[in-house]
């Protein structure tokens, strides 16, 4: 069956107009509630399907991911105005109206396919937009299944047909054609995909590369920090780009921290020969080995001839501070973390920023600390959009019940990461706004002398 993008976009535009004219805030929010609740209720089904289709990650973690994202997405969208008058600023005399952007093109990754599709669909619908999804081919079956179920919900509300569509035979050519034809593009995935989105000639929201640096301050509870790092790094076998990539540890606590890692089923690699072999397996010719993405630690270790316990959850590699280009400084989408020892906080920041400059600038840093001065010093110094405090970055950076970040699966990385936003993408970014500017009464206009005094 041939795919005609022009026809899909024409149908999408028609559906969007009908939806805009006939649906109000309460009904739209109820649809969003049902879509997110469906993902919550069928978390095990989606997790099993994705795990079998992609061969990546951990089934149990995928269940948690679908449960958690469904809940936090509904919490973040519930009760928030997204149409008509959304703000009145009496003091400035400004009234703001929200309006749809139109047809959204959504590119979804193989690593988090259904939750990303859900995220972009409900954010699009929240602003009365239509959406066309282009899935990574390796997770197409799972995404198509989810969209079929979402469309059943939309149909039950008599929403226009074709409000949510998916390219059933995705290809680079069709995706490029879609991006060039839509009103806005949301690209969640690899660097090449995001670069293509920004080159489409359409307004685009992309994500930067992840390489989350994790600094452990001297006042942190070492056991708590280490176990949190492990939880963040090993979730879904490390396929989430916001997982902790490093453990930047106080030099006098380094050995103690390594022992805590080992006690929590982490295998420590410090032998230079083993490190060299591992680097070649993970980064052949300096590039990420896609075959290792989301694979368990024992399988990765076996590739270099290491027979490690089957219950090993992560590999911890001793980092070389003096080697500014070692491959273990790069993003690792598998359960591998690199450990560094630092002297003062300036050195910890330097290690983190050096790694970010290689990959991941603009994304996020995790810090374990109870000293506000140190937290703010780190935040001011590093070129990232988010600093996560005393929590697993991969589990909270996309919004959480325990922080105030907007729930999302698309993490803007600012101009550092060649992105247009340096915040979490959410429905606000799929709205156009119109402002009424009323004439202000009784305004005292300063004289030139007063103004420039």
What does this structure look like?
The protein has 453 residues and is of the alpha/beta class. It is globular, with a radius of gyration of 24 Å. β6, α8 (191-198) and β7 (204-205) form a beta-alpha-beta unit. The protein starts with a helix and ends with a helix. The model has no long low-confidence stretch (mean pLDDT 95). It has helices at residues 5-22, 25-41, 43-54, 59-77, 113-126, 140-156, 172-181, 191-198, 222-234, 254-263, 272-282, 297-302, 345-358, 372-381, 393-396, 448-451; strands at 84-89, 94-100, 103-108, 130-135, 164-166, 184-187, 204-205, 213-216, 246-250, 266-269, 314-318, 336-342, 362-368, 384-389, 431-437.
* CATH architecture identity of the largest domain: 3-Layer(aba) Sandwich
CATH class of the largest domain: Alpha Beta
The percentage of residues in β strands lies in 15-25%
SS elements, strand count: 15
- The rough form would be described as globular
Instruction: Label the structural class.
Output: alpha/beta
Count of helices?
16
Give the strand order, joined by hyphens, for the main sheet: 5-4-3-6-7
C-alpha Rg (nearest Å): 24 Å
């Amino acid at each position: 069956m041939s795919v005609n993008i022009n026809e899909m976009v024409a149908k999408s535009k028609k559906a969007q107009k009908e939806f805009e004219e006939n649906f109000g805030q309460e009904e739209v929010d109820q649809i969003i509630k049902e879509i997110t609740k469906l993902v919550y209720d069928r978390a095990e089904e989606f997790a099993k399907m994705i795990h079998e289709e992609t061969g990546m990650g951990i089934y149990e973690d995928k269940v948690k991911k679908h449960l958690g994202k469904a809940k936090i997405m509904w919490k973040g969208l519930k009760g928030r105005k997204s149409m008509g008058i959304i703000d009145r600023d009496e003091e400035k005399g400004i009234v703001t109206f929200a309006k749809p952007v139109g047809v959204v093109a959504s590119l979804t990754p193989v690593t988090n396919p259904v939750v990303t599709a859900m995220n972009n669909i409900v954010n699009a619908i929240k602003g009365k937009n239509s959406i066309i999804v282009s899935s990574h081919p390796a997770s197409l079956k799972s995404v198509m299944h989810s969209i079929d179920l979402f469309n059943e919900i939309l149909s039950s509300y008599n929403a226009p047909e074709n409000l949510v569509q998916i390219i059933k035979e995705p290809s680079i050519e069709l995706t490029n054609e879609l991006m060039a034809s839509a009103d806005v593009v949301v690209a969640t995935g690899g660097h090449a995909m995001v670069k293509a989105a920004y080159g489409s000639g359409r307004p685009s929201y992309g994500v930067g590369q992840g390489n989350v640096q994790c600094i452990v301050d001297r006042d942190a509870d070492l056991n708590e920090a280490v176990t949190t790092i492990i939880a963040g790094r090993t979730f879904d076998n490390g396929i989430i780009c916001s997982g902790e990539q490093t453990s930047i540890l106080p030099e006098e606590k380094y050995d103690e921290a390594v022992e805590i890692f080992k006690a929590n089923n982490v295998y420590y690699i410090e032998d230079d020969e083993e490190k060299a072999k591992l680097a070649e397996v993970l980064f052949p010719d300096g590039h990420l080995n896609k075959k290792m993405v989301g694979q368990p630690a024992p399988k990765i270790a076996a590739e270099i001839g290491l027979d490690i316990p089957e219950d090993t959850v992560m590999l911890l590699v001793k980092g070389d501070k003096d080697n500014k280009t070692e491959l273990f400084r790069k993003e690792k989408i598998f359960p591998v973390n690199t450990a560094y020892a630092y002297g003062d906080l300036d050195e910890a920041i330097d290690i983190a920023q050096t790694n970010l400059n290689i990959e991941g600038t603009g994304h996020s840093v995790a810090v374990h600390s109870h000293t506000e001065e140190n937290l703010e010093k780190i935040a001011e110094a590093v070129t990232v959009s988010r600093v996560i405090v005393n929590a697993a970055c991969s589990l909270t950076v996309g919004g959480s019940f325990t922080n105030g970040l907007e729930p999302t699966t698309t993490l803007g990385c600012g101009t550092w990461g060649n992105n247009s936003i340096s915040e979490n993408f959410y429905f606000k970014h799929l709205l156009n706004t119109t402002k009424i500017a009323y004439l202000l009464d009784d305004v005292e206009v300063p004289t030139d002398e007063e103004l420039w005094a």
